């Protein structure tokens, strides 16, 4: 099995890579920071800043060059940004969020589909924030909603590949550490819910979530390609 995962240095991407490596898969991954523990276990890794398409494209293409077919591709890397009102969010910050959470997935997919490379299944990690539009989740919500549409559009073009934009539910990662350490603020209602979920079964750790995600991959293939799905509702 050949697997590609973006954002392998921490959180869900790290959990997915660790699980697949333990199963004996050939795993390819990128992020800015190098996950030394996974590289020791055989991860094929390249350091790529997804905010910089020009510098990142040749490095990514060199990483995937030897692989003519990927069984699963996880477009997992993502940036949350600060929880604050849209009006208080600098335009450059929103642009960077869109670059990482949306446009990087366009050039990653274009590189992946070059040279007649075949991809069986692509799962883009989306979020419930793509639907809910909760105050404070500004650029993150906009970017994940756009990601869902990007995936739908690629599904219409690449009919030999199955695509899903998948919300993974709450996962106990660095992203949640940031959110659950914010001071209570009545403007940003999900914070209280996240703080209550942290440390409970409602917010599994990254490896548990990765195992669940790998288990439901065949179920995703039954959905229309390009669909948005929430792991909690499957
Ligand atoms: N945690 C949750 O509850 C939750 C809920 C819904 C959706 N999600 C989604 O799940 C995915 C994984 O998030 P996580 O919770 O595991 O967060 P995380 O621990 O912060 O991991 C984010 C990953 O993305 C990579 N990344 C961020 N910016 C990058 C950049 N400019 N270039 C290359 N890689 C970059 C990071 O690597 P480097 O920093 O080393 O570059 C890291 O490996 C994200 O798409 C997130 O939106 C998470």
UniProtKB/TrEMBL annotation:
This is SDR family NAD(P)-dependent oxidoreductase. PROSITE patterns: ADH_SHORT. PANTHER family: DEHYDROGENASE/REDUCTASE SDR FAMILY MEMBER 7B (PTHR44196), DEHYDROGENASE_REDUCTASE SDR FAMILY MEMBER 7B (PTHR44196:SF1). Belongs to the short-chain dehydrogenases/reductases (SDR) family. It comes from the Bacteria. Keywords: Oxidoreductase. It comes from Thalassobacterium sedimentorum. The keyword Oxidoreductase applies. InterPro entries: NAD(P)-bd_dom_sf, Sc_DH/Rdtase_CS, SDR_fam. The keyword Kinase does not apply. Signal peptide: none annotated. SUPFAM superfamilies: NAD(P)-binding Rossmann-fold domains. Gene3D superfamilies: NAD(P)-binding Rossmann-like Domain (3.40.50.720). It holds the Pfam family adh_short. The lineage of its organism: Bacteria, Pseudomonadati, Verrucomicrobiota, Opitutia, Puniceicoccales.
């Amino acid at each position: 099995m050949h697997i590609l995962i973006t954002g392998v240095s921490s959180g869900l991407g790290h959990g997915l890579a660790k699980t697949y490596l333990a199963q004996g898969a050939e795993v390819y991954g990128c992020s800015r920071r190098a996950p030394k523990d996974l590289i020791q276990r055989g991860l094929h890794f390249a350091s790529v800043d997804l905010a910089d398409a020009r510098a990142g494209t040749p490095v990514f293409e060199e990483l995937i060059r030897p692989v003519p077919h990927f069984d699963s591709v996880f477009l997992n890397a993502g940036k949350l940004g600060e929880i604050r009102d849209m009006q208080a969010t600098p335009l450059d910050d929103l642009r960077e969020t869109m670059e990482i959470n949306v446009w990087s997935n366009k050039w990653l997919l274009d590189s992946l589909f070059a040279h007649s490379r075949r991809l069986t299944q692509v799962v883009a990690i989306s979020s419930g924030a793509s639907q809910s539009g909760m105050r404070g989740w500004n650029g993150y919500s906009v970017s994940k909603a756009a990601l869902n549409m990007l995936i739908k559009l690629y599904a219409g073009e690449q009919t030999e590949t199955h695509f899903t934009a998948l919300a993974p539910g709450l996962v106990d990662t660095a992203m949640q550490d940031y959110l659950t350490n914010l001071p209570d603020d009545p403007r940003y209602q999900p914070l209280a819910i996240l703080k209550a979920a942290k440390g409970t079964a409602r917010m599994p750790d990254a490896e548990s979530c990765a195992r669940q995600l790998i288990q439901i991959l065949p179920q995703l293939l039954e959905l229309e390609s390009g669909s948005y799905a929430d792991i909690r509702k499957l």
